[in-house]
Amino acid sequence: MPRNLRVRIALVLVIVAASVWYLYPPKKTINLGLDLQGGIHLMLGVEADKHVASQTDRAAEDLKSALERKGIAVKRIARDGNTAIQVELASPQSWNDARTVVAEFATFERRDDDQAAGRFRLVMTDRYVRQLRDEAVRQGLETIRNRIDQFGVSEPTITRQGADQILIQLPGVQDPARAKALIGKTALLEFKLLDERTSPDQALAGQLPEGSEILYERQCGRDKKDGKAEVKKPVVVQKRTLLTGSELTDARVAADPNSMGNWQVSITFTATGGRIFGEVTEQNVGRRLAIVLDSTVCSSPRINERIPGGHAVITGQFTAEDAQDLAIVLRAGALPAPVVILEERTVGPSLGADSIRQGLIAISGSALVVFVFMLFYYRLSGLVADVALGLNLLILFACMAAINATLTLPGLAGIALTIGMAVDTNILIFERIREEMRVGKTPRAAIEAGFRRALRTIVDTHLTVMGTAVILLSFGTSSVKGFGVSLFIGLGASLFTAYFFTRLLFDLLYMGRRKVETISI
After folding, report:
1. HEC states along 269-332?
2. Which region among 89-98, 254-263, 425-434 has the lowest average model confidence (pLDDT)?
3. DSSP classification of residue 219
4. CATH number assigned to the domain covering 50-128
5. DSSP state, 194?
6. pLDDT in tens, 76-96
7. Measured between alpha carbons, how far is 370 from 23 in angstroms, rounded to an integer?
């Protein structure tokens, strides 16, 4: 046997062995898409206007601080709508000094000036509003992706749709309610001091100081743990946020040593956050510090001493699952704006199983028809094409397993199309061999010429369609991408099997024999 032939046989054997290895369950398996294994489909709407409003609130606080640093007293400063700040100076005589400070806030424009009364209005520029709305969606998408990655969903689809929507598909999720809670939780963690000079009753009666607000304290996790009515206690806290979850580096679950069966979340701050937390606790010994999660006070412990080291604990009536979910959202970061579920669909595993069964029936049926036709029409050469087709499918599935690709229902359609194109490639080669034999060439010469002259056409057609598959992968939706993946890989396998492997089988059948008078084609 020629050395070249031995090398080609060895190459095929290596590829077959590698394909079997990747398809063997302990190594890797093919991920199934939402339409094949079930899961949830969510369309989320990002409330970007609330992100704009929060940035306006922050700008109002920054402006107040900047004016006070310049010695300019402020009678009133508050957000007006989502994009405007209403400012009233304590003394109109400080008007010019205030204008100098306001000029530093380049993302706002001053309007409705009333110098005599010391009042003016700042309005956020349209360009900055658009930037903030886009930022809310982009950051929200990345935050949700980080949460889902930590949640452990295999091959999720998370993409932006339109101006302010996010499409999420989570295959194989068995607990949709938990997944939705994890995705939708804003997870804004804040540390604020309690306003212990104002009682909740006074605040509810309308005697609420300007720098304070009413929040409600409850045992975080209780509403998930049992079906009892949720008990909320009003708490008066200072509006000023001393520290936020943006300064976290880690959040871990641990058993609550003070409550049997409950869990807590231990958080670790960055170096900057640890320094701020140490200063806050040192300067406010004896006062109560509220730990606020999504505008709900989880706990409000009294500060007994300075807390160094940058560590804190969030306690409540957490189950292990509740605490784990909270740790996930804290590590992933807070959503810049709340999200609402606009559309929800749940695909059951039984429906996915039906799709798999019907898809396999379609592929098996088409493969069987092709197998019989090739065997009947091209005889022994048809059998060679059928063996090559089997290897094609083996390589296709193995490649999908190797790259951890997701098989979807459109992907099954791509596989069916691959079967047709793979056989069509063999038909091109066989018809060229027939033409060469009709002009009087010997079987060996006909085989050589048939493969050589069909090669260019085969490469052109395959590369053209593979280019189309790349476009589908780059710009298509999730279902279109599933089609593109199977089509691209299938055509690549077809180039190898229909030309290289088929040629190897022809060489083994005909080229090694001393005398060949005819070809079974």
Report:
1. ECHHHHHHHHHHHHHCCCCEEEEEECCEEEECCECCCCCCCCEEEEEEEECHHHHHHHHHHHHH
2. 254-263
3. -
4. 3.30.1360.100
5. B
6. 998 999 999 999 999 999 999
7. 24
Pairwise CA distance, residues 23 & 399, whole Å: 9
Mean pLDDT lowest for which of 59-73, 109-123, 215-229?
215-229
Domain limits, CATH 3.30.1360.200, in the chain: 185-346
* Residues with Cβ within 8 Å of residue 134, at least 6 apart in sequence: none
Residue limits of CATH 3.30.1360.100 in the chain = 50-128
Question: Which H, E and C letters describe 101-156, residue by residue?
Answer: HHCCCCCEEEEEEECCCCEEEEEECHHHHHHHHHHHHHHHHHHHHHHHHHHCCCCC
pLDDT tens across 98-115, in order?
A: 999 999 999 999 988 889
Does the domain formed by 185-346 have CATH 3.30.1360.200? Answer: yes
Question: For 3-38+348-511, which CATH superfamily applies?
Answer: Multidrug efflux transporter AcrB transmembrane domain (1.20.1640.10)
The tokens for 26 are 């302990």
For the cut 80, the answer to whether the pLDDT of residue 476 exceeds it is no
The pLDDT tens digits for 169-224 are: 888 787 888 888 888 888 889 999 999 999 999 999 988 988 899 999 876 665 54
